[in-house]
From TrEMBL:
Database matches in InterPro entries: PHb, PHb_sf
Xref: PANTHER family: BHLH DOMAIN-CONTAINING PROTEIN (PTHR35796:SF3), HYPOTHETICAL CYTOSOLIC PROTEIN (PTHR35796)
CDD domains (alphabetical): PH-like_bacteria (cd13225)
Protein name: Bacterial Pleckstrin homology domain-containing protein
Occurrences of domain Bacterial Pleckstrin homology (ranges): 15-120
Top-level taxonomic group: Bacteria
């Protein structure tokens, strides 16, 4: 599970192939918005939830999948990239869990992800 006490995640870079790691977990009508990868770990945004993948062990064959449904979000914050600072951030506050922070480097679908979260909150 995500270390909610640490409240951080490695810098994530867009990687559409990373979504394959969670395809067996998806519901029949669930659609992938985008996926991101750090060294080995990653995160996949769908139209229903966020799935964080924590790859464990030397071989990486053991994986921990944390499902974070949008319906449990109480607030969120998006920081988009700028001219010189190309990183963007997403902070999400989940009821009864706490804050989760994702940092992205390079291209990201922050606006689409933000709209999806808003659709579930409002």
């Amino acid at each position: 599970m995500i270390d909610f006490d640490n409240k951080g995640f490695f810098k994530l870079k867009q990687d559409s192939d990373y979504a394959d790691k969670v395809k067996d977990l998806l519901l029949d009508d669930e659609q992938i918005i985008d996926s991101y990868k750090s060294m080995r770990d990653g995160v996949v945004f769908t139209d229903k939830r966020i799935i964080a993948v924590n790859v464990q062990g030397i071989t990486g064959s053991k994986k921990d999948f944390t499902s974070l449904p949008y319906k449990n979000i109480v607030a969120y914050s998006v920081e988009t990239s700028g001219t010189f600072d190309l990183d963007s951030e997403l902070e999400i506050y989940f009821s009864a869990v706490g804050k989760v922070k994702f940092e992205f480097t390079g291209k990201s679908s922050m606006l689409e992800i933000s709209k999806t979260i808003s659709n579930h909150l409002l």
